[in-house]
Structures are given as structure tokens and as C-alpha cells.
Automatic annotation (TrEMBL):
Protein name: [beta-adrenergic-receptor] kinase
GO terms assigned for molecular function: ATP binding; beta-adrenergic receptor kinase activity; G protein-coupled receptor binding; G protein-coupled receptor kinase activity
Keyword Cytoplasm included in the entry's annotation: no
Residue span(s) of domain PH: 498-592
Subcellular localization, as worded in the UniProt entry: Presynapse
Species: Oncorhynchus tshawytscha
Reactions mediated catalytically: [beta-adrenergic receptor] + ATP = [beta-adrenergic receptor]-phosphate + ADP + H(+)
Record domain AGC-kinase C-terminal: where: 395-462
């Protein structure tokens, strides 16, 4: 019966894996709905106040660059050849190997720099030319070779051309996309879920929060672990082991540079992705030694360093290098001769490992260095990770290529198989078995601003999805974009006036204040105007009529509450949190300034006429006829 359950678990797991492969593609084709172009007014204010409307901020975002490039190619008369030059340089900077950069740098020099020098049309400085020529003559091609040209290209674009872009429809489109990006809220639709016989799931998203739990979701490593593959593949050759050792060393280096000692390095904790590259997992025993070195004797017997076994002895990253030596020996030789943990600990503390004659001299030197019981003599304990990386055993290894995962793995996990003894080995995720984390108010302060910036993992994935097709192919038109054209040219009404901001909001209307009515609002220094579809005249509320501007909530949705003289209320709801923040700020600022101006006027003349407040040059209703 147990065997049948294991088979069913394996089948369920594999079916979930197959289903997950189709899910992201289906989700990627989902149409993104942009807000109306009128969102530009609110977004421009929002971005300006956060210093996000500079040339550098827009040009260095993928969406901003593509729209700026589109503007230069389609909407201005003068040619902008430096954009193509810029793209070539950026492609060059992404190249991994020096050979590729050497070849591409010559192509860029001949195609852009030398060509313009010969035609006497070179618009860049002599200093930039000399910089590139000097490096090319010495065959020095760092990724930053063309950086002086990047600076000068940007300087040539940030003036009049950029100003024209800000005034164009392409900038409006940029504001629409930024509104979508900044208003993204994670939900279950953002997860690609695998179900393993009803026992939880894995997702693409890196973190989420429930009411009382903080959930961390990690990448699914479906290639098994080195312990499993050691049992299936048999012992590894020196060349095969060198591949795994190199990638693991980079992982240890990353942790040690942050003063973290791993303390549980063993084959079972080295997972493989579907391509065969390694991930160090299970950091439950990892410890920060930046302020105080640990003394605890923790880890797995057979991989623990002598100083870890000696209770009361302080240690740091030294322990991981001994564990690395133990693990590499295990990959080369297989199982320990004894499984008695006390005997294993005794051997670790008192005996030197016997290395077989079949090991190469370089391999023997590496293992003898890593397995030194004396910390002061152990490889990696004085010179840290660079000392290990420079060992003769790794001669010829390009560590940048290791970091970029350019080396071919010796073992590619078979697809369509469960790379474990059975699916039950993968783990259980029952609610009862998962330790919940109750979040306190102090915790909320840490997580309330969980970032969704252009640098975050989720946002980068979203940007790739957008710029991969939808941005260029125009699949972003909202269903109301055509419908709202019947409302009229909203921006035209604001042109030439002292309008602070304009855009759509929902107004709580009808005699019983039970229905939300979508209206287009204009904010002026002394009044608020609005109108809806089919209305030919503007409605009006003057600043003098307003008593306070407050924040309230209706059905868990933040709203703006304007208290009106006579005990009436005026409730507004925005279509996104971003718009709420900006509308509330601008309304509050305008109301505050208007009150200051009125008080000054009253002090200077006793009583001033209300013409400036209630009789703007337009047709209007009074507050009493507005359903307030």
C-alpha cells in the first residue's frame, strides 16, 4: 500500500510540474489594461514630487527608454543616430567573455566612431575618442570601455529633445505605464501554483503576507540534491566534482562576505535546478558572526569541523571550509565506512584522512588543505575564499564564467522524473506542520513597504513581460478609453487656466449617498469643478465652502472627505492608492493656501467680497444644487 501511495505521489507531482509549464505562458498573454490618458495630470504631479521626472530616471528605465526611442524615431524631424549607438554600447556591456568584447568593440569603433571621424561629423569629444583608442591599442576591453560615450550621448539628449518628449503623447503613455506598475498589488493570480496531492505549493513570487503570517516562497529546485544523485550516479570524477566545488565556493564566499557561517554543508543540502546548476539550501543553522562568534556544536556528523565538535570553542567561517573538504571527499569516495556518529566524531578530532593514490596531486593538496584540523593552517581560513579559488586544483577556472553559470553541468537532471526517492521526500507543507509566524505591530513596520520598485524581482519580471511584447504591440488599450472620449477633451479645458491637477474620481452621490458616480474633476487654487458624461456644464465647490479636508474609510477603501458648511459632506474615492495620495495632498494644500489668503484679505480690508471665491469665469451650479 505504501508503494502505491508513493507511485500516486510521483504521478501527481509530475502532472503538477507539466501543468506549471503551461501556466506562465497563458498568464503572460493576459492583456494589460492601461488607465485613461488623463491620468497624466495626476502622475506628473506624483512623479515630479518624488524627483522621478528627470532625464536619467526615465531614460534608464526600460519602459521609459523604449517610449523615448519611439518618440525620437516617429515624432521629431531631426535624426537621433546616437540612440542606436547607445544600444550597441549597452549590448557590448552585457557580453561575458573578453574575446566577445574584443570583437564587438572593434565593430562599434569602426561602425560609429571611425566612420564619423572620417566624415568629419563626429559630435563627441576628443577625450572620449582618445579613451577608446588607447584601450583598443592595448587590447584592453573592459565592460566600461565606452562609458565616456554613454555620458556624452545622454548629455546630448537631456536638453530640448527630452523637453519635447515630456510634452508629447509618448510621455502620456509613460505615465499610464508607470501608473500600472506603481499600483501592482500581489494576489493569488500572481502565483504559479503546484499542488502535490493537496499538500501546499510553490510559487514564482518571492514573498507574501497573510493577516498573521509572513510567507517566504522559494524557487522550486526540481533537479534533486547531490545526495540523491550520488546514490543514482555513483561517485563523481575529479572533473565532475570540480564543477560542483566551484559553484559551491561562490555560494560560501557570498555568505562569508556577509559574516554568515553556513554550518550544514553536505550533499543533501546542495540542490540542482533543472539545468544542473547548484543552489545551497536549508540555512536553518546559518549564523551571523559579525558581532559574536558562535560556540554551539551543531551540524551533521561527518561534516562538522573539529572546532565545532569541541564544545565551548568559538569559530567562524573556518567551519565551512572543513565541511567543504568532507563533502568533496564524499562525492569522490561515496559512503563513510562507519555510521556511528561517536566514532565519526572521534575520527574527525584525532585522525588524518587517508587519500587514495588515484587522486591527483592537485586534488590531494586541496583536500589536505581543507581538512586541516588546525584552523590556522586550514585552506581558506587566512586568505578566505580567494585563497581556495587560487588553489592549483582550480587552475584554468574562469570564476566569472562560474558566476554566470556558463560552464556545462556534468549531470543534467532527467526531466519527467521525480529526482528523489519518491515525491514524499520532497517535503510536506501541511498547515499543521508549518510553524506560523505571528506578526506584531513592530514587525509590520518592517514589512509594510515591501518593495515593488523597478529594481525588485517581481517588478523586473513584470517589466520583461511588458517590454517583451505588449508595450511595442499596443495591447494596452483600456475598454473605457474610447467610451470616455464622449466626455470631451478634458485637458483642453484645463489649458491656459490655473488648474493644479485634473482626473477621474468617484463621487458618493444621489440623495441617499449610496452610489458612486464617476466624474472628471479639476482642482483650481480657489475651487473644485467636475462634470460627468452627458453634462454640458461644470459643477462647482469653492474653497470658502469647505470646512476641512479629511481622510476616511468606506468599506475598507480610503476616501477623501470634504466637510461643507451647513453640516454637509462631500466624499471622493480614487481609483488607486497612488491617485488617492496625490489628490488628498493637492486638495489639502490648495485648501490650506486658500484659507491663508482669505485670512490675510480679511485682516487687510475687514471684509472682502467673495467674487474671487465663488464666481469664476464659467457656468456653474451652486453647492446647494449639487446633491451635496
Amino acid at each position: 500500500m505504501a508503494d502505491l501511495e508513493a507511485v500516486l505521489a510521483d504521478v501527481s507531482y509530475l502532472m503538477a510540474m507539466e501543468k506549471s509549464k503551461s501556466t506562465p505562458a497563458a498568464r503572460a498573454s493576459k492583456k494589460i489594461i492601461l488607465p485613461e490618458p488623463s491620468i497624466r495630470s495626476v502622475m506628473q504631479k506624483y512623479l515630479e514630487e518624488r524627483d522621478e521626472l528627470t532625464f536619467d530616471k526615465i531614460f534608464n528605465q526600460k519602459i521609459g527608454f523604449l517610449l523615448f526611442k519611439d518618440f525620437c524615431l516617429t515624432e521629431i524631424d531631426e535624426a537621433v543616430p546616437q540612440l542606436k549607438f547607445y544600444e550597441e554600447i549597452k549590448d557590448y556591456e552585457k557580453l561575458d567573455s573578453e574575446e566577445e568584447r574584443l570583437c564587438r568593440s572593434r565593430q562599434i569603433y569602426d561602425g560609429y566612431i571611425m566612420k564619423e571621424l572620417l566624415s568629419c561629423s563626429h559630435a563627441f569629444s576628443k577625450k572620449a575618442v582618445d579613451h577608446v583608442q588607447t584601450h583598443l591599442a592595448k587590447k584592453q576591453v573592459p565592460p566600461s570601455l565606452f562609458q565616456p560615450y554613454i555620458v556624452e550621448i545622454c548629455d546630448s539628449l537631456r536638453g530640448m529633445i527630452f523637453q519635447k518628449f515630456i510634452e508629447s503623447d509618448k510621455f502620456t503613455r509613460f505615465c499610464q505605464w508607470k501608473n500600472v506598475e506603481l499600483n501592482i498589488h500581489l494576489s493569488m493570480n500572481d502565483f504559479s501554483v503546484h499542488r502535490i496531492i493537496g499538500r501546499g505549493g510553490f510559487g514564482e513570487v518571492y514573498g507574501c503576507r497573510k493577516d498573521y503570517k509572513l510567507c517566504f516562497i522559494l524557487d522550486l529546485m526540481n533537479g534533486g540534491d547531490l545526495h540523491y544523485h550520488l546514490s543514482q550516479h555513483g561517485v563523481f570524477s575529479e572533473k565532475e566534482m570540480r564543477f560542483y566545488a566551484a559553484e559551491i565556493i561562490l555560494g560560501l564566499e557570498h555568505m562569508h562576505n556577509r559574516f554568515v557561517v553556513y554550518r550544514d554543508l553536505k550533499p543533501a543540502n546542495i540542490l540542482l535546478d533543472e539545468h544542473g546548476h547548484v543552489r545551497i539550501s536549508d540555512l536553518g543553522l546559518a549564523c551571523d558572526f559579525s558581532k559574536k562568534k558562535p560556540h554551539a556544536s551543531v551540524g551533521t556528523h561527518g561534516y562538522m569541523a573539529p572546532e565545532v565538535l569541541q564544545k565551548g570553542t568559538a569559530y567562524d567561517s573556518s567551519a565551512d571550509w572543513f565541511s567543504l573538504g568532507c563533502m568533496l571527499f564524499k562525492l569522490l569516495r561515496g559512503q563513510h565506512k562507519t555510521k556511528d556518529k561517536h566514532e565519526i566524531d572521534r575520527m574527525t578530532l584525532t585522525m588524518n584522512v587517508e587519500l587514495p593514490d588515484s587522486f591527483s596531486v592537485e586534488l590531494k593538496g586541496l583536500l589536505e588543505g581543507l581538512l586541516q584540523r588546525d584552523v590556522a593552517k586550514r585552506l581558506g581560513c587566512l586568505g578566505r575564499a580567494p585563497e581556495v579559488k587560487e588553489h592549483l586544483f582550480f587552475k584554468g577556472i574562469d570564476w566569472q564564467q562560474v558566476y554566470l553559470q556558463k560552464y556545462s553541468p556534468p549531470l543534467i537532471p532527467p526531466r519527467g522524473e521525480v529526482n528523489a526517492a519518491d515525491a514524499f521526500d520532497i517535503g510536506s507543507f501541511d498547515e499543521e506542520d508549518t510553524k506560523g509566524i505571528k506578526l506584531l505591530d513592530s514587525d509590520q513596520e518592517l514589512y509594510k513597504n515591501f518593495p515593488w520598485s523597478s529594481q525588485s524581482a517581481g517588478s523586473r519580471r513584470w517589466l520583461r513581460r511588458c517590454t517583451g511584447g505588449q508595450l511595442r504591440h499596443g495591447q494596452e488599450r483600456g475598454p473605457q478609453e474610447d467610451q470616455n472620449k464622449q466626455l470631451g477633451h478634458e485637458e483642453d479645458y484645463a489649458l491656459g487656466k490655473d488648474c493644479i491637477m485634473h482626473g477621474y474620481m468617484l463621487k458618493l452621490g444621489n440623495p441617499f449617498l449610496t452610489q458612486w458616480q464617476r466624474r472628471y474633476f479639476y482642482l483650481f487654487p480657489n475651487r473644485v469643478e467636475w462634470r460627468g458624461e452627458g453634462e454640458s456644464r461644470q459643477n462647482l465647490l469653492t474653497m470658502e465652502q469647505i470646512v476641512t479636508v479629511e481622510e476616511t474609510q468606506i468599506k475598507d477603501k480610503k476616501c477623501i472627505l470634504l466637510r461643507i458648511k451647513g453640516g454637509k459632506q462631500f466624499v471622493l474615492q480614487c481609483e488607486s492608492d497612488l491617485e488617492f495620495v496625490q489628490w488628498k495632498k493637492e486638495l489639502t494644500d490648495a485648501f490650506t493656501e486658500a484659507q491663508k489668503l482669505l485670512r490675510r484679505a480679511l485682516r487687510s480690508s475687514g471684509r472682502v467680497g467673495l467674487g474671487w471665491w465663488s464666481s469664476p469665469n464659467l457656468l456653474s451650479h451652486t453647492a446647494g444644487s449639487n446633491g451635496l
